[in-house]
Amino acid sequence: MSTFYFIAFLSIFFSILVITAKNPVHSILYLVLTFFTFTIHYILMNAQFLAVVNFIVYMGAILVLFLYTLMLINLNKESEPRKSSMVKFAAVIGGGCFLVTIVAALKAFKVSQPVILNDPNLGLVKNLGKILFNEYLLPFEVSSILLLSAMVGAVLLATKDPKTT
Amino acid sequence: MDVADIIIKFVLVVIIFSISLLIALYSTYAERKVAAFFQDRLGPNRAGPFGIFQPFADGGKMFLKEEIIPANASAFLFIAGPSLSIFTACIGSAVIPWGQKLTIGTHVIDLQVADINVGVLYILGVVSLGVYGVMIGGWASNNKYSLLGAIRAASQNISYEISMGLSIIALLMVTGTLSLREIAEQQHGFWANGWFTWNFFRQPLGFLLFIVCAFAETNRTPFDLPECETELIGGYHTEYSSMKLGFYLFSEYINMFISGAVMSTLYFGGYNFPFMDLIHSPNLVAIIGVAALFAKIFFFIFFFMWVRWTIPRFRYDQLMDLGWKALIPLAIANIVITGIVITFLNR
Fold it and tell me: What is the pLDDT of residues B123-147, one digit of tens each?
């Protein structure tokens, strides 16, 4: 349990650093560390497959692409868009309202019962695969079609205007 | 797990770690000798007989050179880059089965640091983490050539990771497991049930795709675009000096060693060798098996060098075309064909 609290503290600590870091590249690197602590959380829950996939997909691919884009456009102080004070004010109000809602929603709940898994080895590859392809085949296929359509959409957006290419 | 097991694991880790460093050290020597052979030269031959102390001379030079951190570089990340690079190169060896179980007295020694049941995915994860060292180092140098090298490294690694993952999926359909130990056990011997047991003979196209991707992931010629010296001076390590440069160069050789080990384990039977059932002492089989695995790894390291000194570097658009328009469709076709064949064989 103490391991969990330590890792949870690290996750929150790094995610705060993500939004406070001045340099966007440092921010992404803190995000990488945050995702790494998520991987440790999955391992603590014995969900090995999810842990490794989180590691490969988020840390190894998506955040590399983030970093790639940031390095390519090379953000710095001069090119940062200036927000008007009106927008900042609205953002503070909106964020405050959201915080109040979250706190109220959490107060309305009782302390949740810990979920006891029937099978602690559920997170292993074989069991996960069997469940995904037997019980949850339709949602699984639908979500893969969703991802495919997102990919096709991205390609379509990128080549929207054939004259400019 | 009692104390003796922990000590055995610790000793195993230290041995594997020193062997990978030693092999990486002598790969630099072997590379220069192989290059000399291909170009009809002599190669290093001054330090010691046949120049075998040359790696130590080079290492000493790396340690003793002046340490320079550019004034405008981000100092912490500048140091973190090479450290991360060598770290990710070294942790890949943790899941590779180096041999069958040794029995000494009452102790059974497992020649593998960790037999996790997602071993193949762990390797993929380590490979995908490897690009961070290059990217962070290239960005932190605050030099446009380094930055271009880092960006090239990122796009190249992402592109080739996809086809590497797809080629492994076809292999996993054949083996049905993600554990490297079980994959190695399945390839026992050399010939069984009227066909070769090694996965290379079941997945020849998959192996071809995998080795091409391995070249790209280790940044070896013909895919060493991130450090292409004709265009980018030195690529991501332009600003590096002394041992930090040494770490970058060293991690490339460790990566070669690890990817040789992975390819031997996945496709060439790992520690298995022909006629291993004729030897009745299990310990002898285990020791010959380790030797067989290292022989395969050395062949792959030689193959890496052979290609480097034979094939010229790709142009950048050719690299991307090969990755996206040739390797990925081939890998997907390989998965489909493998699926059809498995369905018909299981009837």
Answer: 888 888 888 888 888 888 888 888 8
